[in-house]
Amino acid sequence: MNELLEKEKRLLSEPIKVFLEGYLLDSFKNRKGQPVIKVDGFTALNISIDEDQSEIKERFVITGVSFYAHVWVSLGADGSTNNTLNLSTTKGMVLYYNFEEKKYTIENIEGISLLDKTF
Hints:
Layout: H1 2-27, E1 36-49, E2 59-74, E3 80-89, E4 93-98, E5 103-106, E6 114-116
Antiparallel strand pairs: 1-2, 2-3, 2-4, 3-6, 4-5
């Protein structure tokens, strides 16, 4: 089951990355209060799955996501600079597999925010 779970994690990561990028660009500011203006990518994306509550290929209960986001932040009139943020979600999420589109979709994004653990 672990090998199958690893394959599914790769598929799960795509809608999660889309959600995270949108969240960062929409309203996120780093610890200095600088808004994110561009996302270059994510590394060390760690998706924690509740295997007891999940059903392979149909429904996954994600208890948390932690990752590094490589972003550009605005410095106002002074331009922009790059940052690497150490972030994690504050709430879990549920992803369902859409068999027609052959991809996962996030069911509940309300109330999910990001905790900045960058120091």
